[in-house]
Amino acid sequence: MRIYSNSFEHAGPLPVEFAMGTPDGFGGNRNPHLAWKDAPEGTRSFVLLCVDPDVPTVAEMVGKEGVEIPADQPRTEFVHWVMADIPASVNAIEAGSASDGVTRPGKTNPPGPEGARQGLNDYTTWFKGDPDMGGEWYGYDGPYPPANDLRMHRYFFRLIALDVAQLDLPQGFSAADVHRAMHGHVLAEAAIYGAYSLHPKLHGTA
Predict the structure, then answer these.
(1) For 105-123, how does the pLDDT look when each residue is reduced to its tens digit (9 = 90+)?
(2) DSSP secondary structure, 168-203, as one string
(3) What is the pLDDT of residues 21-35, one digit of tens each?
(4) β-bridge partners, 22
């Protein structure tokens, strides 16, 4: 199975139109084009995830004036998109079809392939308690890495083929819920990533 994109090259820069944050504020926040082929026989649905594994673990350093986050600081994951129950007949998601612009405080019913369900991304936790941004952030919301982070962030789009048409998931499910529900049902996985940074030394490179 292979996943690819017309919006960016694997391991290359993720264009700013697909980011939530830019050096000047909010960006286009459009989902990139994704397509796939050669799913294994017996595939009944797909799961799609977008995960940044390069998120700093010391939150107090994020955006702090006069401080740069070292590239070797231990990192954790941040989920930007989780979609389950994508029908086996679907083989592409067009750019901007699931997200186009920043919706505050989060999209409540994001568009997507018919029959698919989209869960909460991690901006839900990040913005919790913020009077302007706090809410339930469903669907795709793109990169907004710390501008003082010296590590280039990678955004992995992971496609997982399953042998079941639907997963047993709660309302407002998370990526962790999907991982638990799809255990024992995975037939294949493919991934592609784009790179993005807001640090002045790294922005626009990969």
Answers:
(1) 999 999 999 999 999 999 9
(2) ---TT--HHHHHHHTTT-EEEEEEEEEEE--STTTT
(3) 999 989 999 999 999
(4) 25
Listed residue (91, 82, 122) closest to 106, CA to CA: 122
Give the integer Cα–Cα distance in Å for 68 and 141. 25
Q: Residue 105 is encoded by which pair of tokens?
A: 């405080």
- Contact residues for 142 (Cβ-Cβ < 8 A; gap 6+): 14, 18, 19, 20, 21, 27, 29, 30, 31, 80, 99, 155
Q: CB under 8 Å to 3, separation ≥6 — which residues?
A: 34, 35, 36, 157, 159, 190, 191, 192
The H-assigned helical ranges of 51-189 are: 123-126, 175-181
- What is the per-residue pLDDT across 184-200, written as a single tens digit (0 to 9) for each? 999 999 999 999 999 99
Please check whether residue 189 is in contact with residue 14, taking contact to mean a CB–CB distance below 8 angstroms.
Answer: no
Output DSSP code: residue 151. Answer: S
Joined together, the tokens standing for residue 103 give 């919706």
Q: What is the pLDDT of residues 118-165, one digit of tens each?
A: 999 999 999 999 999 999 999 999 999 999 999 999 999 999 999 999
Cα 35 to Cα 87: distance, rounded to the nearest angstrom:
13
Query: How many other CB atoms are found less than 10 A from the CB of residue 182?
Result: 19
